[in-house]
TrEMBL record, chain A:
<dbReference type="InterPro" id="IPR036703">
    <property type="entry name" value="MOB_kinase_act_sf"/>
</dbReference>
<protein>
    <submittedName>
        <fullName>MOB3C kinase</fullName>
    </submittedName>
</protein>
<dbReference type="Pfam" id="PF03637">
    <property type="entry name" value="Mob1_phocein"/>
</dbReference>
<dbReference type="GO" id="GO:0016301">
    <property type="term" value="F:kinase activity"/>
</dbReference>
<feature type="binding site">
    <location>
        <position position="164"/>
    </location>
    <ligand>
        <name>Zn(2+)</name>
    </ligand>
</feature>
<keyword id="KW-0418">Kinase</keyword>
<feature type="binding site">
    <location>
        <position position="82"/>
    </location>
    <ligand>
        <name>Zn(2+)</name>
    </ligand>
</feature>
<dbReference type="InterPro" id="IPR005301">
    <property type="entry name" value="MOB_kinase_act_fam"/>
</dbReference>
<keyword id="KW-0479">Metal-binding</keyword>
TrEMBL record, chain B:
<dbReference type="InterPro" id="IPR021819">
    <property type="entry name" value="Far11/STRP_C"/>
</dbReference>
<feature type="compositionally biased region" description="Basic residues">
    <location>
        <begin position="294"/>
        <end position="303"/>
    </location>
</feature>
<feature type="region of interest" description="Disordered">
    <location>
        <begin position="281"/>
        <end position="306"/>
    </location>
</feature>
<dbReference type="GO" id="GO:0005829">
    <property type="term" value="C:cytosol"/>
</dbReference>
<protein>
    <submittedName>
        <fullName>STRP2 protein</fullName>
    </submittedName>
</protein>
<feature type="domain" description="Far11/STRP C-terminal">
    <location>
        <begin position="407"/>
        <end position="763"/>
    </location>
</feature>
<dbReference type="Pfam" id="PF07923">
    <property type="entry name" value="N1221"/>
</dbReference>
<dbReference type="InterPro" id="IPR040185">
    <property type="entry name" value="Far11/STRP"/>
</dbReference>
<dbReference type="InterPro" id="IPR012486">
    <property type="entry name" value="Far11/STRP_N"/>
</dbReference>
Length: 212, 785
């Protein structure tokens, strides 16, 4: 497929369009793996909807912590393969690069290696989650006004973990036989953020072909 | 400790090692010359009585007559003569090896003679002699005066204890071909050891007393290894081993009307397979790079690992496509670290993979997790309370039935939790105890079954703390990383020869002997502590808690952790034995020339049975001490046990790994997310091998600042409960509140009371004020707690 300039600059076309996969090719195998998921009988799209009577902040809070825990472990399963050498910058493919910025040490967006970025990310989320002013645990204490914005930021950054894992480390996931798990976790995550519009659609670009 | 090359260890855990080995470990190599001394003492006497014939040729009646004569010979005043007779009897118990051709014969006659000796009352006779030796203050004081104690100082005691040990061990072990009178002999012996007569104490208590006396420094010449071995076997004999325990537990659950156990834990553990130990990421990367340089790209891994998804009951639609690939890829799979990575998942597939091990009967169980999940009553209560708090706003205490107002998913959760509810015998016992405390009068005297365990506990109760401290003191001295000769005790007294070695060969031999000595001490202490804990727990949970608390207060937890803070692999594979010097081999075969090379080569066993046994016992003890106890779990965290325990995972033995993983599981939520992220292999092993507790947030929970002030309170409450139990069951009610009041007029009036002077003048006024005008408040009786 010839690369024309229009395609390169077209943000909608991060991957080359592949609508047909020939069975027997390696691409077909990868495609099958990408589709593999845990058939637990749950309709993930339905499951993320806010149940009647439930408070939306509660619902979001529980999911944010849950996704954080799960993504933490998913990253842990292949953290041996994600090193300073293999991933000197935190990237999502050739086109996307993520830089770390926070309120303390990194006031300016800084290029960090993927493991460093992950570390900073997990610590930062952990701090927020443990902060009673942001994620109150006692009954009756209300959520702060900017709660959903905080969650948006957390989930946006967590999404980048998926991006990095899928684009750079999916073969490790396959070697472990964990693709169905990661895919299911991703699907759940994706439906959740779409349901409540918690992540800007531009951030979702790198994996735009994924959730099908 | 870098790359791992430990093969799967073929290890059958049980009550003890093989019969011959257990007998062999009674002796140290320095004692080997005494075997011929025993023989000489016997033959000198035997030939005066029976000329030209051998013991094996005598018939039953003649053998009995000879033994009776020997036993009479024990009643002389002359200590040396007594010792000679005792040695002759020991030779009989050792199997009259001078007349035997092979090891099998020796063991056979040892057993035969042990039964004979018991039937003629030898044990009782030796018990008296033992008591005399223990009280022999002359021996104690001469030992205390010596600068260096050796074998020679415990000669008499060693002979006595050896005879007793041989009798206990030979009679304890059941064999199919045993004639019925031997079977009844066994029962009689067991009863004699368990149930004391004439208000004596059970025999085990005498041995406990020897241990404390040794540790107090008053009797440094006591041969501790033999005392501990005998104590262990007596407990094993009188209380019963692991299979007996399991059967008792099943029976007790039936009696209490509890549902049967979800699985047979002994069987499940036998069928579990070891997981590949966690590799360090550095060497992983290096190996990976090496492989990649060799091959250019990673070869496809067979997709057999998809089976691990079966845990989720998911059939992988792609599996069939790849099924054939497995065989082709076999020669491509290398045995280095890369292969190691996959082993974890492969081991989860139980019957499929062919093994090279000799076949051992394994119970096959369906793919998936080996243990059924369990839920405690209080887990259900907590879950409901949290839900009620959230959805309704108030709580109902321990009610687990009222689900009104809670959303449907909660109803379903409670249903699932209840399906897996497990009530332990301990729960029932604790509840019973609460009721007995509340109503001491109306529920009457508790009916306590007089089992050997109960009798032992009652006898041990008074000095139990001292026994535990003494045992741990010796265990510490015998640990591989400790000094065996501390300021207070010297556990090598009964292995060191009178004359220290001069040649290199002799030194090597003594070094091996000393290490072996220590290993056997560790083996017996670890086994007997585990037995006590398990039996007491079944008998009554507070008996178990009492022993546990004293072990914990005596620093058992750091002791066990310190024990594991060594090169575990080299401990498990230690070769501290010289098989040609082992009994009974050394008695029937000629001694070959010992060389330094043959000593270093040791035996050709894959691992050291007794050391692996000890490690598993210690891990089990540590689990029992810390399970469900927040304060003690935090001790594990505070002592930084996680890296120590992780190193122990290198030993590829399923049972040992299981108990390590259990200890790691209870700590995970205090170790932080960073630890979990870097130890996913261990997390996976925990998930696969350790029983799940529903609602247990071990993998995700994050209690870094667990409330430290709760620890003391928890232990104090427990201590109060234990003391209440002990005093209720065992204290004589001297000054209890419930002693009957003396209300017989005669005796009350007959008592002399000192009344103050002015009372004579003012008693009428006093009566008016204090007695007649005070209304009786009957309602207070109802309020009294």
């Amino acid at each position: 497929m010839a690369l024309c300039l229009k395609q390169v600059f077209n943000k909608d076309k991060t991957f080359r369009p592949r609508k047909k996969f020939e069975p027997g090719t390696q691409r077909f195998e990868l495609y099958k793996k990408a589709q593999a998921s845990l058939k637990s009988g749950l309709d993930l799209k339905a499951v993320v909807q806010l149940p009647p009577g439930e408070s939306i902040n509660d619902w979001i809070a529980v999911h944010v912590v849950d996704f954080f825990n799960r993504i933490n472990l998913i990253y842990g399963t292949m953290s041996e393969y994600c090193t300073e050498k293999s991933c000197p910058i935190m990237s999502g493919g050739l086109k996307y690069e993520y830089r770390w910025q926070d309120d303390s040490k990194y006031k300016k967006p800084t290029k960090l290696s993927a493991p460093q970025y992950m570390c900073m990310l997990m610590d930062w989320i952990e701090m927020l989650i443990n902060n009673e002013d942001v994620f109150p645990t006692r009954i009756g204490v209300p959520f702060p006004k900017q709660f959903q914005q905080v969650c948006t930021k957390i989930l946006t950054r967590l999404f980048r973990v998926f991006v990095h894992v899928y684009i750079h480390h999916f073969d490790s996931i396959i070697n472990m036989g964990a693709e169905a798990h990661v895919n299911t976790c991703y699907k759940h995550f994706y439906y959740f953020i779409r349901e409540f519009s918690l992540v800007d659609h531009r951030e979702l670009e790198p994996l735009v072909r994924m959730p099908q | 400790q870098g790359s791992v090359d430990c093969p799967n260890l073929e290890f059958e855990y049980g009550d003890a090692d093989g019969h011959g080995v257990e007998l062999a470990e009674l002796y140290s190599y320095t004692e080997e010359p005494e075997l011929s001394t025993n023989r000489r003492c016997f033959e000198e006497d035997f030939h005066t009585q029976v000329q030209g014939r051998r013991w094996l040729e005598l018939d039953g009646a003649q053998q009995k007559a000879y033994v009776m004569r020997l036993l009479d010979g024990l009643e002389v005043v002359n200590r040396d003569k007594r010792l000679k007779v005792a040695r002759a009897i020991l030779y009989l118990a050792q199997g009259v090896f001078g007349d035997c051709d092979n090891e099998g014969d020796v063991l056979h006659w040892s057993r035969h003679n042990s039964f004979l000796l018991y039937q003629l009352g030898t044990f009782t006779a030796f018990l008296e002699l033992l008591n005399m030796e223990i009280d022999n203050s002359q021996a104690c004081s001469s030992a205390l005066r010596k600068p260096a104690i050796s074998l020679a100082d415990s000669t008499e005691l060693r002979v006595l204890l050896s005879v007793m040990y041989l009798m206990v061990e030979n009679i304890r072990v059941e064999q199919e071909a045993d004639p019925p009178e031997w079977k009844s002999c066994r029962e009689t012996f067991r009863t004699e050891l368990s149930f004391p007569v004439h208000t004596e104490e059970p025999f085990a208590l005498l041995l406990f007393t020897m241990v404390t006396k040794f540790c107090s420094g008053h009797a440094p010449h006591f041969p501790m290894k033999k005392v501990l071995l005998l104590l262990w076997k007596v407990l094993l004999f009188t209380l019963g081993g692991f299979e007996t325990l399991q059967a008792m537990k099943v029976r007790k659950r039936e009696e209490l009307g509890l549902p049967p156990l979800p699985e047979d834990s002994i069987q499940v553990m036998r069928s579990m397979r070891a997981a590949s130990p966690p590799t360090y990421s550095m060497e992983l990367m290096e190996q990976q790079q090496q492989q990649q340089q060799k091959r250019g790209h990673r070869s496809r891994r067979p997709l057999v690992k998809q089976d691990s998804l079966d845990i989720y009951n998911e059939r992988d639609p792609f599996k069939n496509d790849e099924a054939g690939v497995d065989e082709e890829e076999n020669d491509d799979v290398d045995s280095g670290i890369e292969g190691e990575l996959d082993l974890m998942e492969r081991d989860a597939i139980i019957p499929v993979m062919p093994t090279q091990r000799p076949p051992i009967e394994r119970v096959s169980f369906p793919k998936g997790l080996p243990w059924a999940p369990k839920v405690r009553q209080k887990d259900i209560e907590h879950f409901l309370e949290a839900s009620r708090n959230k959805f309704i706003g108030f709580t109902l205490g321990q009610d687990t039935e009222t689900l009104i107002g809670l959303p449907r998913p909660i109803h379903e959760s409670v249903k699932t939790l209840k399906q897996h509810k497990y009530i332990s015998i301990s729960d029932i016992q604790i509840k019973n105890e609460e009721e007995l405390e509340k109503c001491p009068m109306s529920l009457g005297e508790e009916e306590v079954q007089e089992t050997p365990c109960e009798i032992l506990y009652r006898a041990m109760l008074y000095n139990l703390p001292q026994y535990m401290i003494a045992l741990l003191k010796i265990l510490l001295a015998a640990a591989p990383t400790s000094k065996a000769k501390t300021d207070s005790i010297n556990i090598l007294a009964d292995v060191l020869p009178e004359e220290m070695p001069i040649t290199v060969l002799q030194s090597m031999k003594l070094g091996i002997d000393v290490n072996r000595h220590k290993e056997i001490i560790v083996k017996s202490i670890s086994a007997l502590l585990l037995l006590l804990l398990k039996h007491f727990k079944l008998n009554h949970i507070y008996q178990f808690e009492y022993v546990s608390q004293h072990l914990v207060f005596a620093n058992c937890i750091p002791l066990i952790l310190k024990f594991f803070n060594q090169n575990i692999m080299s401990y498990i594979t230690a070769k501290n034995s010289i098989s040609v010097l082992d009994y009974p081999h050394c008695t029937v075969c000629d001694l070959p020339e010992l060389t330094a090379e043959s000593l270093e080569a040791g035996d050709n066993n894959q691992f050291c049975w007794r050391n692996l046994f000890s490690c598993i016992n210690l891990l089990r003890i540590l689990n029992k001490l810390t399970k469900w106890k927040h304060s003690r779990t935090m001790m594990l965290v505070v002592f930084k046990s996680a890296p120590i325990l992780k190193r122990a995972l290198k030993v590829k033995q399923a049972m040992m790994q299981l108990y390590v993983l259990k200890l790691l599981k209870i700590q995970t939520k205090y170790l932080g997310r960073q630890w979990r992220k870097s130890n996913m292999k261990t997390m996976s092993a925990i998930y696969q091998k350790v029983r799940h507790r529903m609602n247990d947030d071990w993998a995700y929970g994050n209690d870094i600042d667990a409330r430290p002030w709760d620890f003391q309170a928890e232990e104090c409450t427990l201590r109060a409960n234990i003391e209440a139990f002990n005093s209720r069951r065992y204290d004589k009610p001297h000054d209890s509140e419930f002693a009957p009041v003396d209300n017989c007029l005669q005796s009350v009036l007959g008592q002399r009371l000192e009344l103050p002077q002015d009372f004579h003048y003012s008693y009428e006024l006093w009566l008016e004020r204090e007695v007649f005008s005070q209304p009786i408040r009957w309602e207070e009786l109802l309020h009294y707690q």
